[in-house]
Amino acid sequence: MEDLAAEAGSNNFAIGDRNITNFSKVYGLVQCTADISSGSCNRCLVGAISEIPSCCDGKIGGRVIKPSCNFRYELYPFFESTVTPSPPPPLSSPTPPSSTNAPVPNANRNNSSKLTISIVVPLVVAVLFSIAFGFFCFGRKRTQRKKYDYVDDETPVTAESLQFNFSTISAATDKFSEANKLGEGGFGSVYKGTLPDGRDIAVKRLSKYSGQGDLEFKNEVSA
Questions:
Q1: Nearest 5°: CA angle at 52, between 30 and 80?
Q2: CA dihedral in degrees (76, 81, 84, 87; nearest 10)?
Q3: Is the pTM of this model over 0.90?
Q4: Most exposed among 1, 4, 153, 162, judged by the fewest C-beta atoms under 10 Å?
Q5: pLDDT tens track of the chain, all 223 residues?
């Protein structure tokens, strides 16, 4: 990893692998943000790599992410190689191309697909969980609002339960507009209104000359 940090140079990026045994390799990637110099990139990577014993001891792979740089190493190829393969020899050449330099696109594609799936699937699950949780909370709030804001069908309606403050009634009838007037009786006019929750109501506004009191009003509502 320190060799890759030194190779990052002006590109602020490097990948490579190193043999562990005759049958296994370790693959590494280092990268810095484009807004820092190569020297700052190297210092950032060296500092991040020094944290390997504290973050990744005993693990077969690891990753450290800093604000300006990050690195990762695994025991399997997790990146696409940018090395351009050598052109094939001319037909007249009797020497076949070396098998050690042959690219392995299938393996790289498989590893890339595994990496993509490992990132996308948890992200999709998290988004679906957030949506389901939002619907649950919204439905619960609506249920609670209906529970406390509306009169249950089995609850007996009394005259007191049908009385509202004047500002609510005025807004529901559009300030007792003539367009909402349903009729007029001996004690005053009756208007059609709509409460904020969508319920339609009939509002009786007593005239200033009416002699009807609270008792007469309650009797009329009960009837």
A1: 30
A2: 30
A3: no
A4: 153
A5: 889 999 887 789 999 999 988 888 999 999 999 999 989 999 999 999 999 988 888 888 899 999 999 999 999 998 876 555 455 555 555 555 555 555 555 656 666 666 666 677 777 788 888 898 887 877 766 655 554 444 444 555 555 566 678 888 889 898 888 888 888 876 778 989 999 888 898 888 877 666 666 666 666 666 6
